[in-house]
Specification:
alpha/beta; Rossmann fold; globular; 9 helices; 240 residues; 8 strands
Amino acid sequence: MRILVANVNTTESMTAAIAESARSAASPGTEIIGITPRFGADSCEGNFESYLAAIAVMDAITRYEGPYDAVIQAGYGEHGREGLQELLEVPVVDITEAAASTAMYLGHKYSVVTTLDRTVPLIEDRLKLAGLDARCASVRASGLGVLELESEPERAVEAIVSQAREAVERDHAEVICLGCGGMAELEEKVSAATGVPIVDGVRSAVTIAEGLVRMGLRTSKVRTYATPRPKVVTGWPIQS
């Protein structure tokens, strides 16, 4: 089985970290391929960057040469999953939805701890669109930018732990979702500080994607995610 894990930004080191996290959750025999878009922002922290990333990820996936069985979009609260589902027949799993749906098996309410406050509405909208908001206790911001998760790891852990504790104590969350692909591998540290299960979206997405592939399930093409109709699209960067 081969799964493509697409970073939504152009930072290669983050792609490598995300792919490594995905491999740690993958079953023997599952190959993880990290994908970095050829254009876009070096981090995604707002609507403009998110919409740009949506196009960039579709471009990167359609340019990939070789077979694959599933795709993971590794951007928390990002746009674009629906477009990928129209373009592809293989399962497409978004880490936002993967983390939240996994958390719901582990506790009554979950909270998300993410990066900057401006990303909170994007995540709330994605959860609402997916029908996963009813059991979300809160979405909290650590105050750190995406790239700071790599450049200042100790400060990142401290900020994430602080907000995770607030979510448990004040918002009554029973599970915490790490709200950024760049937070991969922080589960143990945050869990030790809070005493609750910590869910990473990348690792959750891998296990979900593997399960869908093993069951022989593919994206439905009868209506919502039907293949785009042939038409002239001027200036579109995605190869035909």
